[in-house]
Amino acid sequence: MWWQWGLAFCMVAFLAVSVTFIRFLLYTHALLRLGESSIDRLQKQALHTVQESERVIEASVTLIDDLQHKLDTVDAWFQAANETGEAVRRVTRSIGVISQTVEDTVLEAKRAVHSRQDTVNELIEWTMAGLAIASRFQASRQSKSKE
């Protein structure tokens, strides 16, 4: 008779373990479904994030291209200003050379006046011609700078 009670106890224990195992499997299955739905939501959110990131990157590329174009335009302006400054420096040097030449001519004219009276008229003509050239050059420079 003890073996019948032992067998009954084993059967009840087996049923309890089986029911517990089945409940564990059902609970695990529910958790897996919940995990699957969570993964689906995460995938959708990741896809949405990727699409938004692509839009932001495209907008950034467009903005950077526009900025590069504008910087190229500004660079051309600075290059033109630099070339204009260089032209002004050349003109200033030329005017300095002309002024020095005119000054040297006037000094030589003064010396010549004292040493030779007959060449005074000729030197005055040369001086006037030099001054006329200098004034024309000055007027030409001013008209070019206004353009």
Automatic annotation (TrEMBL):
<dbReference type="InterPro" id="IPR009293">
    <property type="entry name" value="UPF0478"/>
</dbReference>
<keyword id="KW-0812">Transmembrane</keyword>
<keyword id="KW-1133">Transmembrane helix</keyword>
<protein>
    <submittedName>
        <fullName>DUF948 domain-containing protein</fullName>
    </submittedName>
</protein>
<feature type="transmembrane region" description="Helical">
    <location>
        <begin position="6"/>
        <end position="26"/>
    </location>
</feature>
<keyword id="KW-0472">Membrane</keyword>
<dbReference type="Pfam" id="PF06103">
    <property type="entry name" value="DUF948"/>
</dbReference>
